[in-house]
Amino acid sequence: MVPCMSPPSRSKGCPVCGAEPSADQKPFCSEGCRNRDLLQWLGDGYRVPGPPADPEQIMGRTNGLDSDS
Q1: Nearest to 33 by CA among 14, 55, 48
Q2: Is the peptide bond before 27 cis (omega within 30 degrees of 0)?
Q3: In this structure, is residue 26 part of a structural domain?
Q4: Is residue 64 part of a domain?
Q5: Residue 56 resides in a domain
Q6: Is the pLDDT of residue 65 over 70?
Q7: Looking at the record, which segments are called Disordered (predicted)?
Q8: Mean pLDDT, to the nearest integer, of 38-52?
């Protein structure tokens, strides 16, 4: 009996425009698309799903993220 094997996965296109990824900019097709993606993250265009943050908890924090206290 021959094991069922899935076909090799194809690489997806550029996450910004869908074009073929460039070897030196992978997974993006160009530096422009890479920069557009970064600007989306920096400008709150992308968001990680989760419950809304409590503004009082955010304002009350005085320690850094790496602090144990």
Answers
A1: 14
A2: yes
A3: yes
A4: no
A5: no
A6: no
A7: 47-69
A8: 89
Q: Is the pLDDT of residue 60 over 80?
A: no
Using pLDDT thresholds of 50, 70 and 90, give the confidence band for residue 8: low
Question: CB atoms < 10 A from the CB of 22, how many?
Answer: 15
Tokens representing residue 41 in the block? 């993250």
- Judge whether 55 lies within some domain: no
13 in Cβ contact with 21 (< 8 Å): yes
Neighbours of 15 (CB within 10 A): 15
Given a contact cutoff of 8 angstroms between Cβ atoms, the answer to whether 14 and 29 are in contact is yes
**Which residue range forms the structural domain that includes residue 41?**
13-46
Count of structural domains within the chain: 1
Structure tokens at 68: 């144990």
